[in-house]
Amino acid sequence: MTDSTELLGRTSTREFVVSDADTAAAVGSGSLPVLGTPALLAWCEAATCAALDLTDGRTSVGTRVSLEHLAPSPVGATLSVSAASSHIKGRLVRFTVEARQGDLLVGSGEITRVIVEAERFMSRLSPPFAAGEL
Questions:
Q1: pLDDT, tens only, 54-81
Q2: Which of 4, 13, 58, 81 is the most buried (most CB within 10 A)?
Q3: For residue 127, how many other CB atoms are within 10 A of its CB?
């Protein structure tokens, strides 16, 4: 198991291309054919998960998000999304995130995740959700 202090300063950068499925019109966060904020957030969270790179039955869950979507990105645009761990306290890991389209800052913010044991976390779900039923 990785000592949580070893997680400080971890980084990850991932590239994404805006598709029709990522637009505000497609995800229901608006009516325009530009990158929707929910898709941008998902990409930022993916970068934080990649930075953690957890193993041995551990994963992380998002607990807090602050994200500014600063500029529109059209379908076909390539964004570089980066995450860097900036604060660790026990199982809590806080990241700064940013998304760029070339030199243009498209989004920036902070995401907090908590490291959990996957099996233990899932066992805490109340029926009927524990069985995957609704």
A1: 999 999 999 999 999 999 999 999 999 9
A2: 81
A3: 7
- The verdict on whether omega for the bond into residue 74 sits within 30 degrees of 0, i.e. cis, is no
Find where tokens 């529109």 sit. 72
CATH code of the domain containing 39: 3.10.129.10
Length of the chain in terms of residues written: 134
Gap between the Cα atoms of 63 and 43, Å rounded: 16
The predicted structure's pLDDT at residue 125: 87
Per the listing, tokens 């300063």 go with 9
pLDDT of residue 130: 59
Domains in the chain, number: 1
The Cβ of residue 29 has, within 10 Å, a number of other Cβ atoms equal to 17
- What is the pLDDT at residue 1? 45
User: Cα(73)–Cα(59) distance, rounded to whole angstroms?
Assistant: 31
Asked whether residue 134 is domain-assigned, the answer is no
Q: 22: burial class by Cβ within 10 Å (0-12, 13-18, 19+)? A: buried
The stretches in the chain having pLDDT less than 70 are 1-3, 128-134
